[in-house]
Amino acid sequence: MPSLWVDADACPKVAREIIVRAAERTATPTWFVANHTVPLPRSKWVKALAVSHGFDAADDEIVERLAPGDLVITSDLPLAMAAIERGARVMTTRGEALDESNIRARVQMRDFMETMRASGEHTGGPKGYSDGDRREFANALDRWLAKNV
């Protein structure tokens, strides 16, 4: 059975709640990995894993532990690329699938935007997490679980 691996450092609370409910409903082993303690309900299926503080420590732990076919939930594009290279599926907390067909272009755009910001451009940040994002994520997660669990 595949597991869910959640990059919990930047996971919105509402997405975390959706993941917990889905994991309980489908009896799916789920790990929230962060470099801080993540508040989670007691559960047989949902666990928190706090890693040492350090650059990309949580990301490295996820990549180390995941198995091919697992689902990684993250908006961190380098983590997504590493997970895809290890055979995992990847979804953002907005329900967007990241895979071999789109990850390289997304990483290149991210790198370009970082270069723009470093040169003094004000590019703005990501938009806020909306009710539409919540619905898209919940629906995408449900579809993935229906196909894979």
Automatic annotation (TrEMBL):
InterPro entries xrefs: UPF0178
Domain of life of the organism encoding this protein: Bacteria
HAMAP family: UPF0178 (MF_00489)
Family statement drawn from the similarity comment of this UniProt entry: Belongs to the UPF0178 family.
Protein name: UPF0178 protein SAMN04487957_101382
Organism of this sequence: Halomonas shengliensis
